[in-house]
Design goal:
- The chain is mainly alpha-helical.
- It has one domain.
- The protein is about 70% helix and about 0% strand.
- Strands 1-2 form a two-stranded antiparallel ribbon.
- Helix 5 runs parallel beside helix 7, helix 6 runs antiparallel to helix 7 and helix 7 packs across helix 12.
- The longest helix is centred in the last third of the chain and has 32 residues.
Length: about 375
């Protein structure tokens, strides 16, 4: 047994992120044709955010995950305070209070970081529960689920009020993925699923059968959110129709770099895949999706290796979140899924979102390093 420390970085993950960075910057530059000049050079800004992000990855690998886990509950409390502050003090942008405006820097969106903090929080909660109860009773599982639901609902309600429905959906996806891995009894998923299905049926039923009653009960804000979602079902809406036209006309090789043939809103964020597909065609789209699948598989394979239990739960939450966002974003862009405002990780423009994903990379790199050390110590 050799006790000499060994630090091994998974280069393939870093190279994947570098590839994402190049694709993101190139595509955002191409999308700038239809983006207002008042927002500045988004491709340059994204480049700066990526540089800051890689510095952040380096710092996190120096800090180590065990230190981050020690302060997770403090980060959770701070994140909820920020969400409350948004509702009280933030300046509305497009009728939403989702961002703090920082002069000279840009905007800061706390909900992007809440996703990561929830993953860490649930990872710690599940690990402690599994350590405290080897064979938990139904009552013990119920109490644990109740506590975890409270942890989930506090930021979910605050984020929904901004409103940012897409982020709330991601919170619940993270929770579902991590709770499923926790090994709790299947009956709880059936019970919660039944309750959610009932509530959703009542809401949707009222929406379709009596829209005036729906507005009285739930307000115009939720009505317009659902109206936007269900516009997908008919294929209507400028955003979706023009995105489909841009993708459909691209052919196998695309229109070429910086040749997006038609305008559609949110081209640099929500619908960035349509810009990429129109520029680089079916071939480019296949290569991008292959890169995404390769990256996701690295995370899934890491979660199946001999790593610390908290790390296993955290990686599962990360993989579940990214997979959902990737499928949802690409699916809504090509008209297969409802439009929810969920961006494409590592590709869409956004300083807060990108930095949150780079934090993920730092955490994943630490898990890989610790895994290699454990393996090395046992040789």
């Amino acid at each position: 047994m050799n006790m000499t420390s060994k630090k091994k970085i998974d280069i393939s993950i870093i190279l994947s992120v570098v590839a994402f960075a190049l694709i993101s910057i190139i595509t955002i530059y191409s999308a700038s044709t239809y983006i207002s000049a008042s927002v500045g050079n988004l491709a340059l800004k994204q480049t700066v955010w990526y540089i800051v992000g890689f510095i952040l990855v380096f710092l996190i690998t120096k800090i180590k995950n065990r230190v981050i886990y020690q302060y997770t509950w403090i980060l959770y409390i701070i994140s909820n305070i920020l969400l409350i502050a948004l509702l009280l003090f933030a300046t509305p942008i497009n009728n939403s209070k989702c961002w703090f405006t920082i002069p000279g820097i840009g905007s800061f969106q706390p909900s992007e970081f809440v996703k990561i903090i929830l993953i860490l929080t649930f990872g710690i909660m599940i690990d402690k529960f599994k350590s405290d109860y080897i064979n938990p009773t139904i009552k013990e599982e119920f109490i644990f689920l109740l506590k975890s639901l409270i942890v989930l609902l506090i930021p979910s309600i605050l984020t929904f009020l901004e409103p940012d429905t897409g982020a709330v959906i991601i919170y619940f996806v993270i929770y579902a993925c991590m709770m499923f891995l926790s090994g709790i009894r299947l009956r709880w998923f059936l019970i919660v699923g039944g309750i959610l299905l009932t509530v959703i049926s009542v809401v949707f039923g009222t929406y379709f059968l009596n829209q005036n009653l729906f507005i009285k009960l739930f307000g115009t804000d939720l009505f317009y959110r659902l109206d936007r979602v269900f516009a997908w079902g008919t294929g209507s809406g400028l955003q979706l129709e023009n995105a489909l036209a841009a993708i459909g006309s691209a052919g196998f090789f695309g229109h070429g770099f910086n040749h997006t043939p038609i305008y559609f809103p949110e081209s640099g964020t929500d619908f960035i895949f349509a810009v990429f597909a129109s520029n680089f065609g079916l071939l480019g789209s296949i290569l991008l999706i292959a890169l995404i699948i390769f990256f996701d598989m690295k995370l899934i394979l890491l979660s199946k290796q001999k790593i610390y239990s908290t790390d296993k739960y955290v990686v599962t939450g990360i993989a579940g979140m990214l997979l959902f966002q990737q499928i949802q974003n690409i699916g809504m862009t090509v008209g297969l899924l409802p439009i929810t405002g969920i961006t494409l990780p590592f590709i869409s423009y956004g300083g807060s979102s990108l930095l949150s994903y780079m934090i993920i990379i730092g955490i994943v790199m630490n898990i890989g390093i610790e895994k290699n050390k454990r393996h090395y110590y046992t040789q």
